[in-house]
Amino acid sequence: MDPSPSPFGQQLKHWRRLRGMSQLDLAHRAEVSPRHVSFVETGRSRPSSDMVLRLADSLDVPLREQNDLLRAAGFGPAFAERELEASDMAGVRRIVRRMLLQHEPFPAFVIDRYWDIVDANAAARRMFPEAGTSPNAIETFLGPGMYRQIVENWADVAWATFARLRREATTSGSDPRLAALLARAETLMADAPAPAKHVHADAPAIATRLRAGDAVISTISTIASFSTARDVTLDELRIELVFPADEAAEAFFAAAASG
Asked: CB within 8 A of 231, min separation 6: which ones?
């Protein structure tokens, strides 16, 4: 009788299907034989910890879920998960704060995997005061608060944000907290008008037009991340950087900082 799939084999199969890959595809990317992929997936062979990480990396599995795969295969986690405020993360905090300060006078936010606002620079707090009172960016931006009034193209930006969240929730395995956040976002977007154009979840930047009195400030937002991180917390952090899209916006942010 064939052995039953192991917990690791079941998770590996889940990730392979989530990524739309066959066993042959995965074997080619991981530079192993299709037979070996089949054996570890069905439980006929027990993978080494190095093989678990090789297969996980080939499937672009996030570090948090790579630790889960290692545990399912009977090994300990390979990647630490430390609180950002931990003493041994002081160097990371300095880097993050420097990035926020150097981006002045333009807004910048630090957001974690679950879209909680971890930190923000002074420009962000001036421009988006509600960001300091609500810790979650999805709740803050998609909810019925001030952003629907001050963001002229709110529907376009909101649907782009929702598309990003949906992609993250569907490609990160089966994270119940992300799934709950997506469900909450679906509720918040129930009455949202349709976007003016097709929304791309993978767009490298988002154009946002902000109302400031009688003026409209054009901005472009992009994301910086620690792509070579070997720590779960650091791997899941991203820094959202807001840039002026023209000279008028640049002058506006400069005046706001000096005033």
From this structure: 63, 79, 80, 81, 82, 92
Amino acid symbol at 204: P
Work out the number of other CB atoms within 10 angstroms of the CB of residue 68.
19
pLDDT tens-digit readout, 201-235: 666 678 999 998 888 999 999 999 887 778 898 89
pTM: 0.85
Q: At 108, which helix (H) or strand (E)?
A: strand 108-111
Tally helices (H) and strands (E) across the chain: 13, 5
What is the rounded CA–CA span in Å between residue 195 and residue 192?
Answer: 9
Q: Is the peptide bond before 195 cis (omega within 30 degrees of 0)?
A: no
Residue 210 phi, psi dihedral angles, 5° rounding: -110, 135
Query: How many CB atoms sit inside 10 A of residue 161's CB?
Result: 21
Q: What is the DSSP letter of 5?
A: P
List of domains in the chain:
7-72 (1.10.260.40), 87-258 (3.30.450.180)
